[in-house]
Amino acid sequence: MLLHTIEEVRAEVKKWRKEGLTVGIVPTMGALHAGHLSLIKKAKQTCDKVVVSDFVNPIQFGPSEDFDKYPRTLDEDVKLCNSEGVDIVFAPSADEMYGEGQRLSNDTLTYVCPPFFYVNTLCGKSRTGHFDGVCTVVLKLFNIVQPDYGFFGQKDAQQVIIIKKMVKDLNVPITIVQCPIVREESGLALSSRNKYLSEEGKKDALVLSKILNNLKTCYSKGIKDVNALKETAYSFLNEKHDLEYLEIVDKDTLEDKKQADDNSIALIACRVEGVRLIDNIYLKEEV
Amino acid sequence: MLLHTIEEVRAEVKKWRKEGLTVGIVPTMGALHAGHLSLIKKAKQTCDKVVVSDFVNPIQFGPSEDFDKYPRTLDEDVKLCNSEGVDIVFAPSADEMYGEGQRLSNDTLTYVCPPFFYVNTLCGKSRTGHFDGVCTVVLKLFNIVQPDYGFFGQKDAQQVIIIKKMVKDLNVPITIVQCPIVREESGLALSSRNKYLSEEGKKDALVLSKILNNLKTCYSKGIKDVNALKETAYSFLNEKHDLEYLEIVDKDTLEDKKQADDNSIALIACRVEGVRLIDNIYLKEEV
Predict the structure, then answer these.
(1) Average pLDDT, chain A
(2) Are residues A143 and A20 in the same domain?
(3) Average pLDDT for residues A159-178, to the nearest whole number?
(4) Which of A50, A80, A218, B254 is deepest in the core (most CB within 10 A)?
(5) What is the pLDDT of residues A118-167, one digit of tens each?
(6) Is there a contact between A170 and B107 if contact means CB atoms under 8 Å apart?
C-alpha cells in the first residue's frame, strides 16, 4: 500500500497495534537496490508488518550536494516493495514532513543533533549538518510509525552508529537491527549513487573494496599499527581516485586508534568520476 | 509509587497499556508547589494514570547557574503526589538518565535543539543551551513513559512554546496541555525559586505581576504600540529590581511585534535579591 500522509500511516499502524502485531521500519531515500531489499527481507523475517519509507530528505543534503540530482524511482520502488510483501510504502512530500512552505533551517525547525565527537569525523567532516538532518528525519519517522524495530545497513556505518547512539541517548523505544553490506560480484558495495558511474567508473570504484579487503588480510597477518595499515592502501590508488578519507576506528564509538584490534572498523570515502562513494569493513568479522 | 529506574517505569506503564488506560506525564524538577499541583490535578482529570517526574536536570543549567543550590525536597514531593493520587513519582539519578559517569556535553550526548529563532530571545538570550537541555530531557521522559498527554505550566511560557514546537517538528505522538499560572494572593507567580527570597524580597518581586497587569490594562484601553506599552513599565522599577527583559511577542511563535494584538503575550524577567524571576500575561485572556 502506497501512502503519502502521516495521518494515513498512523491510522494503518493503529489497526495493527490493536491486533497485537509487531512493526518494523526500513527508512530509505528510494532508488531501491538489492542492499535495501536485504533490509526489507530481514524486516519481514523479524516483524509481522513492515513499513518502508521512501523519502529523499532535503535537510540531510548540503547546499552543494546532489539533492536535485539524487535518483527518484518511486514506481519501481513500489513494485519491488510489493514483491517483497511490504505492507506500507510511505512516500511523503517535503511539505508533509516539514510543514507547508516551511523554511528548512535550524532557525525555524527543531533538530536532533548527534554528539560532536561522532559527527566531526569521517563523512561528517565534509558533510556539515548531514547527520543532524539524518537523525532528525529518522526520529520523525520513528515517531510517525512507532515501530518495534528499525533496519539499517552497515554500508552507512557512521550513520548506523550515530542512530544507535541517538536511540540510546534519547531513550527511543525501538531496537535497531544492523544488516551486512550487499556487494556486486565484483566486490563493489551497492549504492544508489552507483547509478551516476560509467562502466569504466564502476571498475575504478573497485578500489574501495580492494583496499578494505587488503587491510583486513594485513590485520589478520598481524599488522596492528594503524599508520602501517593505512600505508598499504596507497599503492591501490591512481589519478582516477580522489581519496577523501581512510580511517581505522572503534566500531561502536568511532574513536581513533593507534593500534587496530578486533573491535576496529576500516572506513573509506573516495570520489570516482566526481561521485562520492563510501565503503567499510570490520577487521575481524563478527560471527 | 516512587520509582528510580527507567526499567521499572516502563514495566509499570506497560501493564497500564495492556489494560487500555490513558497516561499523562507532569515533568518537574521537584520542589513542588501549588503551581505543580494544579498541573497534577489537571492530569488526574484528563488521564487514567499520572506519572510525575522529579528530576533536577543538570544539562539545562549553565555553569554559573543554581544547579547545586536548586531546592531538592523529594520526601515532601512524594507526600504531595500521594495525596493527589499520582500513580508514579519517577525520580531518577543523573547516571540513570544520562549513563553512568557520562560526560554531560554535546560532544558526547545526542541533543534535541529547538529552532534558533525560538531560543535566541527572552530567557534563551541569557541562558545559553538551556532550552536544548530542556527539550532533550523532556523528549527522553516522553520516550521513557510514552504518555498520551504532557502537562506544562504557562509560567514558563517560552518553554511550553518550544516544547509544543518540538512535538510538532519531531512528530512526537503526544498532546501538550498548557495550564494557567498559579499566583499567591499578592499576585506573585509561584516558583520553586521563590524559596530563595526574603520576606522583603517577596514584596519587591510583586513588581513583575504589577507591570504585567498594568500592561494588560493599558492594552485594553487601546494602547497598541509596543514601545509605548513598554514605557509604562519603567515607573514601577527601582534599585531593587534588575530588569533582564520585558517583551511583547506573538504567543505562538515568539515573533517580535511593533503593534500588540490579541495574540500578544507580555513576558518579563527580573532579578530581585539576585534571584532570577519570570512571569508573563496574555494581553487578551483566552476564554
Answers:
(1) 96
(2) yes
(3) 98
(4) A50
(5) 999 999 999 999 999 999 999 999 999 999 999 999 999 999 999 999 99
(6) no
Note whether A162 and A220 are same-domain residues.
no
Chain A residue numbers with beta carbons less than 8 Å from the beta carbon of B113 are: 106, 110-113
For residue B220, tell me if it sits in a domain: yes
Q: Is B170 found in the same domain as B199?
A: no
Of the candidates A98, A110, A115, the beta carbon closest to that of B166 is on: A110
Judge whether residue B287 has pLDDT over 90: no
Percent of chain A with pLDDT over 90: 97
What does the pLDDT average to over B133-158?
98
A113/B110 Cβ within 8 A: yes
Rounded to an integer, the average pLDDT of B49-58 is: 98
Lowest mean pLDDT of A57-61, A136-140, B15-19, B101-105, name the range. Answer: B101-105
Residues A64, A135, single domain; the answer is yes
**Chain A: nearest CA to B141, how far in angstroms?**
8
A250: chain B residues, CB-CB within 8 Å: none
Chain A nearest-CA distance from B13, in A, is 13
The 3-class SS string of A172-185 reads CCCEEEEECCCECC
Domain carrying residue B232: 192-279
Q: Are residues A86 and A152 in the same domain?
A: yes
B114 and B174 inside one domain: yes
Task: Tell me what pLDDT residue A286 has.
Answer: 61
pTM of the complete model:
0.96
**CATH code of the domain containing A120:** 3.40.50.620
Taking the C-alpha atoms of residue A140 and residue A138, their distance in angstroms, rounded to an integer, is 5
**Domain count of chain B?**
2
B130 is catalytic: no
| Cβ neighbours of A169 in B, within 8 Å | 98, 109-110, 140
> Domain boundary residue among B142, B157, B179?
B179
Task: Note the pLDDT tens digit of each residue in A33-71.
Answer: 999 999 999 999 999 999 999 999 999 999 999 999 999
Q: Are residues A196 and A146 in the same domain?
A: no
Say if B66 falls within a structural domain: yes
Task: Tell whether B187 is covered by a domain.
Answer: no
Pairing of strands A149-153, A23-28: parallel
Query: Do B98 and B153 fall into the same domain?
Result: yes
Whether A71 maps to a domain, the answer reads: yes
Contact A111 B110 (CB under 8 A): no
